[in-house]
Amino acid sequence: MSALWNRGLPAVLVTFAAQEMMSQTPAQPTACTLVGQRATRLSADTLPGGQHVAFIGGGVILKCPSRGITITSDSAERHPDKDFLVGNVVVKLVDGRTLKSPHLIYNQITRTISSDTTYSITGKQGEQRGVGFRSNRTFTSFRCLANCGGDFKVLVPKL
């Protein structure tokens, strides 16, 4: 694990998780740390066209203390045009909400985050859930694709 660690594989995936998924200012990435677990495995490969892919398995924990962001998943993958968080994904968003899904995809070209599986987002106002979503990187523009629902607190003024 240390040879791949020293060659910068975690930096590739930390950049994916912090800068691309959560940064509100893309030019200023958030410093994050990959917290190595006993079972964490790192590997990288080069595709026939010279492009690189990177994999982390055995448990992924990314901590971004300056922004209060924590991302966990069973594994992560970085491909030339997309990044994947796979298995039991939990993302503590900047505004305090928590996103949970079996997997997330970050499209580097369109700069969007998506999933085609179940998801839930919980926060102070309640919970939103559904099957599949599309969002911008900061989750300020979010669209549920199917079976959308949730439980929310709504403030009703006295008349």
Explain how this protein is built.
With 159 residues, the chain is mainly beta. The protein has a single domain, classed as Lipopolysaccharide (LPS) transport protein A like domain (lipopolysaccharide transport protein A fold, Sandwich). The chain has 2 helices and 11 strands, in the order ααβββββββββββ. The chain has helices at 2-6, 9-22, and strands at residues 33-34, 41-46, 52-57, 60-64, 69-73, 75-78, 82-92, 98-107, 112-123, 126-136, 142-152. Strands 1, 2, 3, 4, 5, 6, 7, 8, 9, 10 and 11 form an 11-stranded antiparallel β-sheet that branches. The chain starts with a helix and ends in a 7-residue tail after the last strand. Residues 1-27 have low confidence and may be disordered.
